[in-house]
Predict the structure.
Amino acid sequence: MSNRTVYLETFGCQMNELDSELVQGQLEALGYRFTEDDARADIVLYNTCSVREQAENKAMSRVGVISQRKREGSAVILGVLGCMAERDGRDMIRRHPQIDLMCGPSELDRLPMLLDNVSRARLSEHAQRLSLDERVALAGKRSRRSKALAAAEDSLEILDLSRAFNPDLDAKSGGRSAYVRITRGCNKFCTYCVVPNTRGAEVHRPPDEIVEECRQLAERGVIEVTLLGQTVNHYRYTHGTALAEGGREVAQVGPSLNAFRTGRFENPNGRATTFADLLQRIHDEVPGIQRLRFVTSYPRDFGDDILEVIAGSPRICPYLHVPAQSGSNRMLKLMNRGYTIEEYYEFIDRAVRLVPDVSIAGDIIVGFPGESDNDFAATVELLRSVPFKNNFIFKYSPRPDTAAITRFEDDVPDEVKRERNNILLAVQAEVSEAVHARWVGRKVDVLVEQVSKRDQHRVPNAAAASPHPGSVALTTEGRALRAPESATKELSGDASPSFAMPSIQLSGRTAGDLITFFDSPAGIDPTSLIGTIQKVRIHESGVLSLNGSLTRGHERRS
Ligand code: SF4
């Protein structure tokens, strides 16, 4: 067992957030403790992302700061995890020889061993004389072992399965929300994207393992699960083809891009578990999961079978994050997205028709090489035509190890990218406002996540928002009092509160992922509502959020 202290910072996507959560659970089970302060840590780990240049630059600057600290004599262990380690490991160690370990996203199960290696190597004189190659090997960088079968056969699943889940760790929704990965990697090779190179080919986990993980999370109090995959709706597991010793099903390589050309996946012999089947199974077999979400969806071949399961299952959220990336067929082709804009519109029409109150979000890349005024106009039209609740809009920047960087010149001037970006933001703001306005006057279910930023200063420890014995309550003047255990219990129970609690603004999300604000009732510990689902009547709407009030009969966290 180790008693060392770790600082872990995450850059980039939800997939990385989940990886960090799992790494933390894995290391905590081995006795490592975590700190929010890198200056107090024995080990500093950065879980990096290569998808956007900005995230890479930020991570590199953090590595630079710790490297400098080490040059000045600090004994801290510096580790780089994730996509930058996979893509750029050798070069990073050359630039920052202070880095002690590298660990790609497909190797995270080996992290404890790598940390152990570093400690032992430090004790050996030999380690001081290692060549660059030896240092990279010691640091854990292997050849692109995330090649499909290697990844399917390795013990990564153990990392997913062995999460040492600790509700107190996750401040979001008071520890009631969790991610569950169902696929790793991607087979699509969009020309601007580094993911197929850093995370490898698409590998699908066996459905029994996924359902079991959801069940375990529900038993520990999780009520919202988000299924993760780069193209999550392309999940499909064919039974009887990937078996370990003893007949246990193991992860298997996903189908190629062409396998999904039909709109509805036919499964006549029941030999496969489709994404629709998986959603249905989790919904039916784990009713404790009151909200089931999934990201990110691929627009192509999103079958009616999936949409019908969403529409017919009250605990599956009617929320689709389906990046279109551009409204122009010419751009979509250069991006190798594999669908036309007509197919995208057709999909949106079906989703709106089949799933009541469906909420749609997307991603757009602006200024991709060769984007003309006409191409851009087609993207503006896309934003005006689809009821997107929001779009994440990115200015194109060439990424190393992508097809686009070698094939295309980055020929849209930066000021044009910026101007187009601003136009899209303005159009999206109008569309978002109209989408939110439709909810005024309606009652919605809100999963309460936190005390709103506006009121956090009024509730000490609001960020942690732990409604446990010993938590902090407020006086009528908003002054903090540490509540005795019995008093705290009273506050969050049904009896009259011992402290007069002022009304505090809380925030959460609807099933369609719309941010919603409402005030806690006076006299109630606001943190007792975090992690519960509340009925809220909507009075007002804006570009980014809804405002409402709690209806009678609200529930508090037990
Ligand atoms: S679908 Fe395209 S953008 Fe998404 S992860 Fe795969 S290659 Fe990257």
Remarks:
- Residues 443 and 537 are 4 Å apart (CA to CA).
- The pocket of iron/sulfur cluster is lined by residues 186, 188-190, 193, 195-196, 230-231, 298 (CB under 6 Å).
